[in-house]
């Protein structure tokens, strides 16, 4: 593992993460050299774990997030490794998304330390890595699930400001992924050949027209129901997210 690359990828998500460890600054780590840096990493991650994984509730949320990040990380790595799947024009997009997911996994594993859940074995639809249409639609479903999953767990992280901040930063990156993947969809057919490959559960609750007790239809009657729904994104519960993810876990 290239530790300097890990730090770089972590800082893409949370620019202050390494500095907040209060152990070594990133500049000091570079001056120490590779051997000394490797020796310091266990203590550094222990500090991160103390700051971020200090309660069972928070550990549960982090492991929940880690499982989703494992899923996305594995999906994009398999997609990039598949022959003749991703067009050359889109390959750089998925390479960057894959780097982000890899950084998310490493950060969450470091925060959890020995409490981190093991990576499951994943299974994907037979044509996910031979049919670009299926690959993109599943990527959209996974990214949308990730966005709504982080949103659904925010309340459980409010006791730890640092980890809530990091989770929100990951959440915003997942949202950018979802937007970028959506940009690739025009020109593709509206749905994959097998509807089961785009789980309806991913979008459960999106029909909601009431926000903060306010009926949007009454408030803004000039907009269609579809436009009003799309202006807000609903959270998913842990149970809902696991219901979406479990079919992909062996």
TrEMBL record:
Pfam families documented for this protein: Ferritin_2 (PF13668)
SUPFAM superfamilies linked to this entry: Ferritin-like (SSF47240)
Xref: InterPro entries: Ferritin-like_SF
Superkingdom, taxonomy of origin: Bacteria
Name of this chain's protein: Ferritin-like domain-containing protein
Higher taxonomy: Bacteria, Pseudomonadati, Bacteroidota, Cytophagia, Cytophagales
